[in-house]
Amino acid sequence: MHLQFIRFCLVGVLGFLADAATTLMMTQEFHIGPIMGRIAAFIIAASITWFLNRRYTFRSTAGDGSWAPYLALTAFGAMINVGTYKYWVQTVGTMPAQLVIGVALGSIAALAFNFAVSRYLVFADAGR
Hints:
The protein is mainly α.
């Protein structure tokens, strides 16, 4: 389990980079508000982490049909994530560095929940 958690965290770093980059692109280049930009970024980042967690972290045989349950279940983690982000940007501000810090804080807040959901529900077929 420890190795899975480490791999989960490494995949999470890649998800964070995709999330932060997409949030900045949406807000700075496309002038979408910080909340809507973050929601779009979450969907993209969650899709990347689903693929990598399925293949690398849990080495699951779950097929493409696990994508929708993964997104649905991690949506609860997303509520923790985006709620933390929203509180941060409303309290501190929406300058680019503040947006990235908000993304990081939201990601950390949702980490344990998302690991448990992934390991025990979405990719339960993976060898333990």
